[in-house]
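[audit] Reproducing an earlier prediction to check determinism. Same input, same settings, fresh worker. If the tokens differ from the archived copy the diff job will pick it up downstream; this log only records the rerun itself.
[audit] input (234 residues):
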Amino acid sequence: MLRYDDQVKMLVAVDCVVMGFDGQELKLLLIKRGFEPERNKWSLMGGFVRSDESFSRAANRILEELTGLTGIYLEQLHAYGNPDRDPVDRTISVAYFALIDITQYEKQLSNTYDAEWVSLSKVPSLIFDHNRMLRQARKEIKYKAANHPILFELLPEKFTLPQLQMLYEAIYEVEFDRRNFSRKVLSTRLLVKTDEKDKESSKKGAFYYRLDKEEYDNKFRAFLNIIPNPDKVI
């Protein structure tokens, strides 16, 4: 049996940057590491790849083991291989990111390992190079949201225009004029107004909208004019 005996063996891990929107804030799913080094420090969802697993299968397994979450679409972000990124052993990490509607998965979240949603504006210092992974994931999401239909993965089936605006503001870290934002969004003709209103946010209430998915698949680029200077979002 052939072997690469003269080559250095390395560990391979996966780490998951899972972001969610609760209708008001953009949040990051974190967990406290259960072993040394960095025990009880905040961490992304991560673990080691088994010998019989692909990266994507390992990412889904680890995410389910730590949080109970299943059926989440994970997209590969980047590989991190700095020789001293893990003080114990030479470890390469393949990072993934995901965008989800928190309310859709709220009941599925397991308390076994105390995974917790933390506001992106209040993310603590994370272990190893996980802060770098988060920064790169945010950068990638800004780029992809300007060119692909991914932000609606963060929204429930019915949403208000203020909720949509808060989401865009959280992603791009800018403030939009309310009237101008509403005008641009409605001009796409890809949102369907319902007869229902959200009465919790204000006395007058805001109408719920839903995405016309069939039209959106064909014309999602109509949303690109919402983003100021999309070529500069990175």
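[audit] rerun output stored. Observation attached for the diff report: The radius of gyration is 20 Å.
[audit] end
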